[in-house]
Amino acid sequence: MQFKGRTVLAFVLLGMLASSIITVVLMSPGNPALSSALASILGTSNKQADMNSTSGANAAAAKISDKDMSKIATTYQLISQSYLNKVENDTIINGAINGMLAALDDPFTSYMDQKEAKEFDESISSSFQGIGAEVTMENGKVKVVSPIKGSPAEKAGIHSEDIIISVNGEKLDGLTLNQAVMKIRGAKGTQAKLEIIRAGVGDPIQLTIVRADIDVETVHATMLDGNIGKIEITQFSTNTGDHFIKELTDLESKGLKGLIIDVRNDPGGLLNVVVEICSQFVSKGKPIVLVEDRNGKQEPTVSKGSSKDYPVVVLTNKGSASASEILAGALQESVGSKVIGETTYGKGTVQVTFAKELGDGSNIKMTVFKWLTPKGNWIHKKGITPDITVEQPDFFKVTPLTKKADLKINTSSDDVSSAQMMLNATGYRTDRSDGYYSEQTEAAVKKFQQAVQLPVTGIIDSATADKLEQAVIKEIKDPSNDLQLKAAIEELNKQIVR
Amino acid sequence: MQFKGRTVLAFVLLGMLASSIITVVLMSPGNPALSSALASILGTSNKQADMNSTSGANAAAAKISDKDMSKIATTYQLISQSYLNKVENDTIINGAINGMLAALDDPFTSYMDQKEAKEFDESISSSFQGIGAEVTMENGKVKVVSPIKGSPAEKAGIHSEDIIISVNGEKLDGLTLNQAVMKIRGAKGTQAKLEIIRAGVGDPIQLTIVRADIDVETVHATMLDGNIGKIEITQFSTNTGDHFIKELTDLESKGLKGLIIDVRNDPGGLLNVVVEICSQFVSKGKPIVLVEDRNGKQEPTVSKGSSKDYPVVVLTNKGSASASEILAGALQESVGSKVIGETTYGKGTVQVTFAKELGDGSNIKMTVFKWLTPKGNWIHKKGITPDITVEQPDFFKVTPLTKKADLKINTSSDDVSSAQMMLNATGYRTDRSDGYYSEQTEAAVKKFQQAVQLPVTGIIDSATADKLEQAVIKEIKDPSNDLQLKAAIEELNKQIVR
């Protein structure tokens, strides 16, 4: 987890906002019939009148008083008339709105200005406007991990490992990964002229790419040995339900005998989408999730689908939040599926977005409901406890090196300890891992440097540190090191009737 | 400095808000003639019309638009109608005001609710309602440092070193110093029944004290050897000017030959007060400070006093902020006084308070002007550079021990390094100070424990840590360790014509 934020791969845009999306009921219900919108999403429209009457009762108290309005107007006036620096109107107004929402002390409630609202919409729909290349930062260079299938980047002939050095004449040197990504992205229909360095090609390559809407795939399916299927969901976005069903049908047509649903590091998404996916596994009429409003009134959402005749398990970790937890809870309690991995994040609230109410392209995402598991458990700040707890190897959590100074023999620091963990994870054994740079540590560093064709100094300089981190990331991505996946396969093999 | 915040003495109330007071022009000018108020404080009322016309020009742009007002009202309504938890009206409104001010990104601009506004007023006037005892926390007990002269605490017979164990029947055990202080304080006229333990007296003593308005002395004068006077100013509060002049006159009547004005760790205060004090030393008509408004218009404040025939120096450190810097700048540039010590904090803005405008007991403190030194230097984020730079001994900056674990031989940590600095400062020499707990470090700890009558274990447990910290605080308060003061005396002795 710690690794991820700082060094690992970043989709062009996606991921920037992903951690802020968590079980959002995506819509702007017409004010004031808020609850009806939930009701319609949950398919319980017969309750609409009932929930409306509750809103009605609060309506009188909800209006801001003239006295309060005047206090806010006075503050506005003092700032615009007297503050030392002249301030944009929007800065003050957005400040007021941010301040009101911040006073709720709820990390999941926030205001988004026009630009943020647009990014949020892109993020929640897992689409954005750009060229469609997954990029990463390596040794200060922007490197293509892979072009997205069917994207303008792929069609234009961008390859994995290409280094992007400039966009429309602007050099990317010295930018952070996010800054570079912002230069590459742009509105649909506009051009990105890229200058690219490709291994084996002498001169830089010039490519002109017309940006388009890019869909980021949120569902990844594989058939493993023994007809065990694995479907990874990275986010519950607009099209995730359709894609999931397509992939599931495909696996079933190939003789699926057991299914692993992998929601590790999935931050959540849309409530209706997770409900749709759960409906593939929960018997008709059984609850998937209960939604509770501010007055404590509970509303169950029941499955309209049917159960499967093959076993299903769910893979979770600390990064499985919100919609992922709804899925884990529903399958655990209403299907009897085993949840395998780590205790989940623990987010038991539902947010609603209010774009229409603001009417100017900005948006408010606000916590409006709690959700409970089918048996009525509120897992907020607790998470879903796995039936089978499995931690990944320690090196999955290693801290990136600070690269503030070279590391060398006879010194002692947290960085040395992290480096020792990386050396051991990549097969270069050291005698200690306590952060003391021993002779054997130096010997291991030399062997590593020889293997990756760096000068054999025994000192961890920033080039060695980069290579070490890349080697560890490779190990982390190697399925044979994925102890949680192994446990899931083992459990399914027990359950499958051969 | 680091020591101060966490462990050292705290006046009852004062100090809690002191760091937020910085050159405040204390008043609520009638809206919209803001600038006239500054003009009147600076004695330049002939400029009033001129500056008003500027405000007038902005007035049209300053009013909040209906569209913005409606957006704020909508947000208010969404929160009070739909947010998962019910929220107090004031929470939302104060949130809006805090948010507008926070958007300015100015640490010196803030909203104060009724309670905070009252505390601020007390703080800026260096007065509060309570019993009038300076207390500290020692080994978890609230200990009286000294009763304030003329206070109810002194009249009731409270002594230095008394331990206060309960207030009106409520035990103070387990409270922080601030929590205990809040119990001891209270409105004028109310009773505080204290239970006190006094060394040498068997049973606890019961004292009933009627709380009153307490003035905290912000001016401390002493005559040193050679008729060198020292006046320390701890804050520029309402009465500070009068008290300063009284103490100065008193020193002069005793044959003052040179003066040290000590504004170290003085966070500032009222602009008119520092101007009054500077007027004692700056020749009539010479500038003390220039004030610049948002349109870049500068207004000098000139002295109405006269210069002195004895030399004056100013002692500063990193904690000398705002009004203290106005004083240092004025004396340095308009009198030619030497500034001695460390570069000052660097705050070059003036705040105005707007209580009348809000009209409900709350208050907004907002940055409205810049101030510049007589020669037109804006020292914001730079500070005043001393003519003679003198740092205090290293142990003045030692970090308090974390007391998370006992410290013992053959371990290594930042805590051990701090402890070694404390041992050396108090005369228990160690061979190293790099944080490695050597044999000699253990020997020094044993000697220290013997001297302060603790069990001689050679291990720094929390009792030993407390005693070590107290010993260092004693050294810090010892004038013979005050290298900056020594340099000031030396400089004055050079300048004084004997």
Précis, in short:
The structure is a homodimer. With about 500 residues, chain A is an alpha+beta fold.
Word description of this protein:
Two copies of one chain form a homodimer. In chain A, helix 10 runs parallel beside helix 11 (323-335) and helix 13 crosses helix 15 (462-477). Helix content of chain A is 35%, strand content 20%. The model of chain A is unreliable at 1-60 (pLDDT under 50). In chain A, a hairpin with a 2-residue loop joins strand 6 (163-167) and strand 7. The first copy, chain A, has four domains: 33-110, no CATH class; 121-215, Pdz3 Domain, CATH 2.30.42.10; 219-348 and 372-392, 2-enoyl-CoA Hydratase, Chain A, domain 1, CATH 3.90.226.10; 394-479, Muramoyl-pentapeptide Carboxypeptidase, domain 1 (Orthogonal Bundle), CATH 1.10.101.10. Chain A contains 16 helices and 20 strands. With 498 residues, chain A is of the alpha+beta class. The first copy, chain A, has helices at 2-7, 34-41, 48-62, 66-82, 89-102, 114-124, 152-155, 177-184, 240-253, 271-278, 323-335, 355-358, 414-425, 439-451, 462-477, 483-495; strands spanning 24-25, 110-112, 127-130, 133-138, 141-147, 163-167, 170-171, 191-197, 205-210, 212-215, 219-224, 228-233, 258-262, 287-292, 298-302, 312-316, 338-341, 349-353, 363-372, 388-389. Chains A and B meet through helix 3, helix 4, helix 5 and strand 19 of A and helix 3, helix 4, helix 5 and strand 19 of B.
